[in-house]
Amino acid sequence: MENLSIDYILRELSSMKIATDVPRCRHCLSKVLQLCSSIVAQDLSPFLPPVVNLMAHSDLLIKKSACLILTKVSECKSELFLLAVNTLLKDIEDSNPTVRALSLHTLCAMKHATFVEHRYSSVVKLLSDPSAYVRRAAVMSVVTMYHDEKSVSKDAVVVNRLYELVRDDDPLVVVNCLTVLEEILESEGGVVLSRKMVGYLVKRLESFTTWGKAYVMKLLQKYKPKSEEEILDLMNVLDPFLDNNCATISLYTLQFFLLLIKDLPDFKDDVFLRCQKMFLGVFTCGNSELISCFLDYLQKEHKPDKNAIQKLFADHYKVVFCKQKEPGYLKIQKLKLLVELIEEENFTAILEELILYSSDRDPQVSICSIGCLKRLVLEWPGVSTQLLKAFHKLLRSERNHVVSNTLQVLVTFSPETLKNLSEVSTQLCLIAQKMSDAEAVVAVLYLIGQFELDNADSLDVIEEFINKFSELDVKVKTQLLMTSFALFCKQPAMFQPILAEVIDLCMHDDDCDLVYQAKCYFSVLHTDAQTAMKIFC
Question: What is the rounded distance in angstroms from the CA atom of residue 131 to the CA atom of residue 96?
């Protein structure tokens, strides 16, 4: 029975006895449905006659299976479709709400013209059905019509009926109507929210499902109250939803409140504090994707609200600390938030966290954390000495990507800041000899040109790079030229031969830009060395 051929299934379904053998009929139809979902395309048109006959079967599962198979062969051309339509129209009058909803769903799913002409009247009729289950199906069928016949679904009769159903007793019907109206009226701005409708939806909010509450709360963000009194009334009624068990509902409520108090900034801190429990709950839930979404929201939407965010996490900043098993993208987001939360009271704790993850195995986490340290150096000059010691420690790391990331951040400091990093300078020559990453080598060569190093050590480093010049990346060659010139400006007598050799190598390189740059250096030097030093140093 498991490996039935198509011909065998067709013979079974065409048998006169199949309708009375319910289990066997169900099994055969399940095999046809498997063929429908098969990767290899199958011609299902031969199954159309028995399937159409089975649509009138009294067994609900057989009827559902037959209707589903029918929708898979809607592209066929067959006179049997007329019989199928008559069966569906008859079922729309059935006493069973499930049968009525199924027939409408099938009717709207069919693309054949024979079915399409009966859609509109059937949908309009069932929008007023006494069963809430059928009304839900009818409302969602409007969307199907909209995608096939936009003018019909936006008919005034349909739209007006949907607006009437917004006040339906069934919560799902209400939410379905709002979603459908929002979609079919998108070109006109979606659902029109009057003060009365908003008041009604707010009162009904508790009766909606979790998804329904979230959707309605998001929809309410379109509404603009006319007075401060109305704003305060809405906030009083919706206040409990700021602390909802569902984080999505709380977030949409927060967004709505922030829109309401756009012109009342004094309320902002209080609104954020009302959401504190929700935010802390998200950070401790262990769901990386959810935490990431909330961090993304905070960092994109609330950068101007830095003070409010700081107050939100003032006593709970440790919930933002990274966990070792968290994915790299989440650690990066947390580190970016931590640097926003830093204050005198928590400075040491957050600094230790940043230093810890500066040596993370993930290069992206490492460079993000080191970048945060750089930001602290610039924003907290009073403790820059303590911060700069962290860079000195990172340069001694055994992980090459940590050293590389540290160097790439150091080159972004101003010359004035680099003067405070004299301890770092003693390590540069050793680092230059062991690093192979092009970005790191470029950075260390730049720093060698900036610091007052032992001339002999600098000379050895440059000579070593000259000896393997042909193997170097073009970016390294370019930086070698600039570093050699910087050293020449400091000690012309010692570095003139070295600079001449580097310029000569660059002028004979295959890279056109490097050749042009070397010729430019040579031309200016040849014309007036003193002027060249003023220009380039």
Answer: 9
